[in-house]
Specification:
heterodimer; A: about 450 residues; mainly alpha; two-stranded antiparallel ribbon; 23 helices; about 0% strand; elongated; B: about 575 residues; alpha/beta; Rossmann fold; Syntaxin Binding Protein 1, Chain A, domain 2; about 55% helix
């Protein structure tokens, strides 16, 4: 362009919408505009920085004409015609006399400010590492995560990962944003590299492990879990991962086997209670329940026997009994329930013991509509008298109530209870008999 | 979609030539229109779905005009995805900064449930700008705010950003009479305990049981005792609701039956009427009465449903355990209860909730307990919860007790690696790790557990503790009360330190008009529960103040943990 440097300076430094003060250059004015537009659109192919001129028009519904990025081709005429009528607002903080090239030259803090407002802003200008870091610092001090992420996107693209990691290691806020960004965008590889670099072994392991949730096919998931076992988890977590793998392995075997059995239609239990869902990926306790339900009688050697599960996963007695009870009660297999609690002591006498408290047992039995006799039997095993009485009353186990009241020598309560039993029933007679008995020395 | 429903439902949109409304899913959009407009939250998954759709169209050779509207704002990551998927040039996009949704006369929600997870778990500060913008909007409409108080790192950042914006903005309303005088910003992690407790005020219970979304709730057939389910808008327009919402649940039934009796009495009035009065009655009052009747039956149904659910789940026991945890005795019993809860596979979220409550009130679990409960939890609810436990540990919701030495050792090791500026932030982080669990000390200092002699009267409550059956005053509300009383943090330094610092006050120089003193904007960053809302309403009534609550979302314990 054949203009003097001074003119250029003035031209570029003056605000675009102020009328030119060079009165004698009216003709040149239009020429200037023409060439400026030409230069602008040319620049589009080189870099994007003229986007600042476009104020995003929000509410008018005018589409925001997006200039093409370098690399995708759009004809010059298109670029020219894309320029919609603009409404200019005063641009803030425009540096005067400080240009380095044609572009509008925002300092890092200004750039960051513009980014925060959502304005388009090219960061390509910040090429030196120092500039980039300054940009990042500004973004962080502005607190807006969106801006920080935008800057990080740029840095990720233009810095080698070692440099990027090294710089971020000492910048916690930006680091967290990068991690989140990588997670969101799904760049697992870079994320793992980052963790490796930072020596965050546990997070590395967790991140890798998390991927298993995306694998639907059980076989593939099992294989994946196998690879997770060697990862640098803490000791107990490693055990958990190992368990997870073993569990899924077992589940796959059981599932295949049971599906076969079910379709063969020979096994009674499957016929009476067809399976509602697959056992794959279920938690351990659910698997145990399933096994107690369908495979209770199997010997320890098979994969699907409850005892096997108990041993392999070291399930505590409490949990085991609770689950087995729930399963057998659902099937109304009262004998099995009995067997659960019966132990032979060394003298050969049988005794009933439970690691979970008989009141719980009673509740579970009741939930499964156990017959009253069974309930009564177990309520009687409850040690705490108040609980016993409460439960008996709640579940209408008359005999227990009566007997307990008698043992407590509580006449009033017995009398009160009399009104609750059916008229003319055996219980009523029993109550009457006790009330009339002269052998009992009543408290009240 | 729900916030949109509150503003413009389908019929209005249709009036504006919208052909059909689709939900964004993986299926291709079968539509004959030439223009597709997408209204999205700025989530990458949504943007990817849009890209799939458009690319499918391109492959099929269809040319359509596409427009994406991001609400409340667009993120640069979304732009990146648009570019990557090659559809950057095919769409035009726009932002709809719809950030404030008034849910009621005194609640404004920003409907940003992802705020909690994004900021507190992932450390991503992307929404801070949104909140600051909303604050600025409030400032320009109702301000200027004379005084701002706050506590919490996020609160501080929002405050700084907002101050920036306020200075930049050209709105000059300094000489206007402000309607809102004070602003109080508080982070969710200052008070996790309140969010984790079971709610027993009516509104809170409804939220816990049925999930209130955007101010409306879906009542299923068991509530309406009909075959349909109804969506009901719950706010102060519902007269029945506004009377019972803040009440403790034990009162609700009494109030409702009282109302029912009144209603009946009103109906009965018509027996004594003559034609003219009857006409009057029918034309004017009957509709209102019928409305009230309907609402009444709905709420009674809801109450019944709640009671049924709760008795089935041993709610009483649960509450007892919670109260014990809050007061700090019978810890062994509580642990046993939790163990049983987990063993019985009741619900994963409930078990987790009370586990976290235990951990926070007790400054972390003993390593043995932590290991055993964690194993049991994973056995009952699935081994993938390994990840859940790590997240909770990071948040400080469920931790192991670390001996003091380990902490400082860690601190030393890491501080060697970082620059000074970052070291400061690190020691912040570490002290925040330690501080969240100073619940007992804070509770003592602020008197959160009311020492009552005799029965605590829930019908005529004396203080905010009634929202938790008299067992506990919500920490967040108590802090607000104290700070507002003292106009600052004087005398509360110890408490503030225990809560992790980052408290601040900014006072204004101009004379404050008395009217504005009465209105206070409480900003909860990370969510606010209905219990806190009720407590603040109560406080307002007591002190003659009015609280307006601005929250990033209404939350409860379930939502908090699910995220």
């Amino acid at each position: 362009m054949n203009r003097t440097k001074g003119d250029e300076e003035e031209y570029w430094n003056s605000s675009k919408f102020k009328a030119f003060t060079f009165d004698d250059e009216d003709d040149e004015l239009s020429q200037l505009k023409e060439s400026k537009r030409a230069v602008n659109s040319l620049r589009d192919f080189v870099d994007d920085e003229d986007d600042d001129d476009l104020e995003r028009v929000n509410w008018s519904g005018e589409p925001v004409g997006r200039r093409t990025r370098p690399g995708s081709f759009q004809s010059l005429s298109d670029a020219l015609s894309d320029v919609p009528p603009k409404s200019y607002a005063p641009e803030l903080g425009r540096p005067k006399g400080e240009y380095r090239d044609y572009s509008n030259d925002w300092s890092p803090s200004d750039t960051v400010r513009r980014l925060r407002k959502g304005k388009v802003c090219s960061l390509e200008r910040f090429r030196s590492l120092q500039d980039k870091l300054q940009l990042l610092e500004e973004a962080v001090s502005m607190h807006d995560g969106n801006v920080i992420t935008a800057v990080l996107i740029f840095l990720k693209r233009t810095l080698s990962k070692e440099i990027l990691f090294r710089e971020l290691e000492v910048r916690q806020v930006a680091l967290r944003h990068l991690i989140h960004f990588l997670k969101e965008i799904g760049d697992q590889k870079l994320l793992l590299d980052l963790f490796r670099f930072l020596d965050r072994t546990e997070e590395l392991a967790l991140s890798h492990y998390r991927e298993h949730l995306n694998i639907q096919d059980p076989e593939k998931r099992k294989e994946f879990l196998k690879t997770c076992i060697g990862l640098p988890f803490s000791a107990e977590d490693s055990a958990h991962i190992q368990d997870h793998y073993t569990l899924l392995e077992r589940q796959i075997i059981i599932e295949a086997n049971d599906r076969h059995l079910e379709s063969a239609g020979q096994t009674e239990i499957f016929r009476k209670h067809p399976r509602k869902a697959s056992i794959l990926n279920m938690p351990l306790v659910t698997t145990l329940f399933y096994s107690c339900f369908y495979h209770y009688t199997e010997a320890e050697g098979t994969f699907s026997s409850p005892v096997n599960l108990k041993k392999t996963f070291k399930i505590p007695d409490k949990q085991y009994v609770l689950t087995a009870l729930a399963a057998r009660a659902k099937l109304r297999a009262w004998h099995d329930v009995d067997a659960l609690f019966t132990t032979k002591n060394w003298l050969g006498y049988t005794k009933k013991r439970a690691p979970i408290g008989f009141h719980r047992v009673v509740e579970i039995l009741h939930k499964n509509s156990a017959p009253v006799q069974i309930l009564q039997e177990y309520i009687n095993l409850v040690e705490d008298v108040d609980t016993k009485l409460n439960l008996a009353t709640k579940f209408k186990c008359h005999d227990v109530v009566i007997d307990t009241c008698r043992d407590l020598k509580d006449r009033q309560q017995l009398l009160a209870y009399r009104s609750k039993v059916d008229k003319g029933s055996a219980e009523e007679e029993k109550i009457d008999a006790i009330l009339n008995s002269s052998q009992i020395r009543w408290k009240n | 979609m729900s916030p949109l429903d509150r503003i413009a439902n389908v019929s209005i949109l249709k009036q504006h030539d919208v052909h059909k409304l689709y939900k964004l899913e993986k299926k291709p959009a079968r539509s004959s229109s030439d223009q597709l407009c997408f209204l999205l939250r700025p989530r990458l998954a949504s943007v990817r779905l849009v890209a799939e759709l458009i690319n499918a169209d391109k492959a099929a050779g269809r040319a359509r005009k596409y427009k994406i509207i991001f609400s409340p704002q667009k993120f640069y990551t979304c732009e990146l995805v648009l570019e990557e998927e090659g559809i950057y040039g095919d769409v035009t996009w726009d932002e709809w900064s719809f950030s404030l949704l008034p849910l009621d006369n005194d609640i404004i929600s920003m409907e940003l449930p992802e705020f909690f997870r994004d900021y507190f778990l992932e450390g991503d500060q992307r929404w801070i700008n949104t909140v600051a913008q909303a604050l600025q909007l409030m400032n320009s409409l109702f301000g200027p705010f004379t005084e701002t108080y706050g506590i919490g790192r996020c609160a501080k950042m929002v405050h700084e950003l907002w101050r920036d914006k306020a200075e930049e903005s050209e709105v000059d309303n300094m000489d206007r009479k402000p309607e809102i005088g004070h602003v109080f910003l508080i982070d969710r992690d200052v008070d996790y305990v309140t969010a984790l407790c079971s709610q027993v005020v009516y509104e809170g219970l409804v939220d816990d049981t049925f999930r209130i979304k955007c101010g409306s709730v879906d009542f299923g057939p068991d509530v309406t005792s009909s075959d349909r389910s109804i969506k009901v808008l719950l706010n102060s327009q519902d007269k029945v609701f506004s009377e019972i919402r803040n009440e403790h649940f034990s009162n609700v039934f009494g109030l409702l039956s009282q109302k029912a009796r009144n209603l009946q009495a009103q109906y009965d009035r018509r027996r004594g009427m003559d034609i003219k009065q009857m006409k009057n009655f029918v034309s004017q009052e009957l509709k209102g009465l019928k409305q009230e009747h309907r609402l009444l039956s709905l709420h009674i149904g809801a109450c019944e449903s709640i009671m049924k659910k709760k008795t089935r789940q041993d709610f009483q026991e649960l509450l007892k355990t919670e109260h014990a945890l809050l007061e700090g005795f019978d810890i062994r019993e509580s642990i046993n209860f939790i163990e049983e809860h987990i063993d019985r596979q009741v619900t994963p979220i409930e078990s987790l909730r009370i586990l976290c409550l235990l951990s926070i009130t007790e400054n972390g679990l003993s390593p043995k307990d932590y290991r055993s409960l964690k194993t049991q939890y994973m056995q009952s609810y699935g081994p993938e919860h390994l990840l859940t436990f790590h997240n909770l540990k990071y948040l400080g919701l469920l931790t192991e007790q670390v001996s003091g030495e380990t902490l400082t050792a860690m601190e030393n090791k890491v501080s060697k690696l970082v620059t000074d500026k970052a070291a400061e932030k690190l020691s912040d982080a570490f002290s925040s790790l330690a501080r969240k669990n100073n619940f007992r000390a804070i509770s003592k200092k602020l008197g959160l557990i009311p020492r009552g002699n005799g029965e605590y009267d829930l019908k005529v409550p004396l203080d905010m503790a009634y929202v938790f059956s008299g067992a506990y005053v919500p920490l967040s509300c108590k802090i607000m009360e104290q700070v507002l009383e003292r106009r600052g943090w004087l005398g509360l330094e110890e408490v503030a330190r225990l809560l992790g610092g980052h408290e601040f006050v900014t006072a204004a120089e101009e004379p404050r008009s008395p009217a504005s003193q009465q209105v206070i904007l409480a900003v909860f960053l990370g969510g606010c529960t209905f219990s806190e809302v009720a407590a603040l309403r109560f406080l307002g009534r007591e002190r003659g103040l009015r609280f307006i609550i601005l929250t990033t979302a209404i939350t409860n314990s379930a939502r908090l943990l699910e995220s």
